[in-house]
Amino acid sequence: MVQLAINSPEFCNVRKASGRDPWLAYHLIDNPMDAKFAAVNFGDAGLRIFDIRDPLKPTEIAYFNHGSPMHAQVGYYDARRKLIYFSDAGGFKVLQIEPQVRTRLGL
User: For strand 59-64 and strand 47-51, is the pairing parallel, antiparallel, or unpaired?
Assistant: First the structure.
């Protein structure tokens, strides 16, 4: 299970004060046969990248903040180009995974 810290009960007041409502929508994984990361859309909290090589301890390692609250659709990861494609209410997005993130994930 992956979750944002702000959704934990001890941060309830912080979440209320933020004016945001991070909820889980769609997600993708890089390789269904040997998954290294999951890209999970948390709506208001943007697209979050989790290292899932140790499935018992997923670790957030990167994110893309949409800005305004948006519901993203199912995305696609292009392993050859190291790009994530997805669309949301703001249009079609192409995200390049930065070199330090690729190195950390062994991509």
Answer: antiparallel
Q: CA 22 to CA 37: how far, in whole Å?
A: 20
Cα distances from 41 to residues 10, 26, 65, 70, 103, in angstroms, run: 22, 6, 10, 9, 22
pLDDT tens, 48-80?
Answer: 899 999 988 999 999 888 665 556 677 889 999
Closest CA to 24 of 37, 6, 11: 6
How many residues are recorded in the chain? 107
What residue has token string 């991509």?
A: 107
Positions of E strands within 1-107 = 27-29, 37-41, 47-51, 59-64, 76-78, 83-88, 91-96
Q: Please, which residues have CB within 8 angstroms of residue 16's CB and are 6 or more apart in sequence?
A: none
**pLDDT tens profile 36-51:** 999 888 777 778 899 9
